[in-house]
Amino acid sequence: MATPESNLEAAIFSAIVPAPFGYIGVRTEDQQISELVYLPPRFQEKSPADTVSSLAAQQIERYFADPDFPFQLPLKQVGTAFQHKVWQAISSIPRGQVRTYGQIAKHILSAPRAVGQACGANWFPLVIPCHRVTASGGLGGFAHHDDETGFHLGVKRYLLRLEQVPEYSQLESTQHQESMW
After folding, report:
1. Between 4 and 26, residue with greater pLDDT
2. Which of 15, 111, 128, 143 could bridge to 26 as Cys pair (CB 3.0-4.6 Å)?
3. 119 in catalytic set
């Protein structure tokens, strides 16, 4: 059930799309996606207000029906050059696989903590699949949240299951993973 607070919060979104874990809020600006946000079940669906949010809603629904669906959305240019480097590396992770913050850091010649910060700053989750990045010893954080029983890590777990990632806390050997870059 929507609360007065969630109705006020919903006003910033051009669309709110149902997802198996709650909703995804879609923000648009100048005929581009300016942000996608994981929203808890206290929100309600909101019909798309424009063509771009309608396109995003359709593609999000297709992803949940087929996690191999390739997103093709006009994304607003946001973030730093470093964040773009991390997001590009994340975008190259195939569905059904994960990489650790450390593996991505090694690949782009950076540090794991900096990679984690860039993952958390991702404006376009699902499109840039930051849920495919885990800690070396387990799930790691998600969207700047690390509460094991919290909403955001529940979303990450759901997405990894949807994408059929084998036991994501037990990665294949590091040597095999690194050879895939």
Report:
1. 26
2. 15
3. no
